[in-house]
Amino acid sequence: MLTKKLAEDIVHQTMLRLRHNINVISPTGVILASGDKMRVEDIHEGAVYVAQTKNTLIINEDNIELYPNTKPGINMPIMYQDEVVGVIGITGDSEDMLEIANLVQLTTEIMTHQALVESKSEWQRKNNDYIFEALVHGSKLDTTLNKRIQKLPFSLIAPFQVILVSLHETSYLENTIPFFFEDLFYRQPILAGHSQLQEYYILLTHCQEQSRQSIIKALRKKKQKLPSLQIGIGPVVQQLSLLPYSYQGARTALEFANVHNEITFFEDVELFSLFKHRESEEVQAFHHRILKNINAKQLETLQSFFDCNLQLKLCAQQLNIHRHTLTYRLNKIRELTGYDPQYFEDAVILQMACTLRTL
Q: What are the residue ranges spanned by the domains of the chain?
């Protein structure tokens, strides 16, 4: 489990503080790293004994003949989860090193533990990413994918839901997002990771309404600290085979979140998602015909009116204008477009035109 690089790091860091040579040795006795470069890849018989017995071995003039290719010193096991993952040896007179030997062993085990945990976490992150990409793109549950799924710390149980989170402006807080996910989803049946440049995914499994709302609430709080954070939430699905639908729904919602700068649910923009070819001449002609005669201020008024759910008083307050002024603007929009924003069916057409125009 010890890599050559980790062994070299241990030797380097330890020898900065000691005047003795340090060897880091594999459980099979191969010297992985040493202050004495000539000893690297030699077999250390004393380390083999330490690995087999899990006991510290002091080599001196009395027993050195029992351990060929060794030098006087102290050899101690490097333990990780009750297993010997390596041996650390300090070359020199054991009587001079007894006081520092335990400290060297402890420091080495801390470095090893940290490195192995990070390595395991990195593998788990990559495994999560692989599983997510495979499932949301409709890959078959073959032997390889099933083996990877079995290595998850939880089972993939319905219902499922995909959430996509995108950061559109670089910020020093960007690096906090992975740690935020780790804290938020600790010991929960959730996959989360980095899917694309400045984009993150969340796959909720076995997601009940209460836990789902709790997660959404936490995401809203995070967005308050990162206003440029965009969040698209896909529909809930009951089968793994339907995850591509939830993923595409989250992506569609994310597109509209980019426009309106808010957390967006697919169900709220599902109507607009029906326009699969938003760049088509028909779509371009549609919103141009309706909106060609109104200016930027009128567009802002119209969008605010829709955001306020067609409520005159609330919209006037949001725009900081008198209600009569708002009514005048809306009447002017009716004259210029032929559609009355205060009439439901006309408002639907106007909102579709505004939305398609901004995509």
A: 4-112, 153-273, 281-358
- Render pLDDT for 77-106 as a digit per residue (tens, 0 to 9): 999 989 999 999 999 888 878 888 989 999
Tally helices (H) and strands (E) across the chain: 13, 10
CATH H-level superfamily of 4-112: GAF domain (3.30.450.40)
Report whether pLDDT(225) > 90: no
Listed as own residue / partner, the contacts of 10-19 with beta carbons closer than 8 Å and 24 or more positions apart are: 10/88, 10/108, 10/111, 10/112, 11/35, 13/107, 13/111, 14/88, 14/104, 14/107, 14/108, 18/90, 18/100, 18/104
Alpha helices (H) along 166-295: 177-184, 209-225, 243-260, 266-273, 281-291
Predicted confidence (pLDDT) per residue in 339-348, tens digit: 999 999 999 9
Backbone angles phi, psi at 233, to 5 degrees: -115, 120
For all residues of the chain together, what is the average pLDDT?
88
Q: Can you name the CATH fold of 281-358? A: Arc Repressor Mutant, subunit A (1.10.10)
* 8-54 per-position pLDDT tens digit: 999 999 998 888 899 999 999 999 999 999 999 999 999 999 999 99
Could you tell me which CATH number the domain at 153-273 has? 3.30.70.270
pTM of the model: 0.63
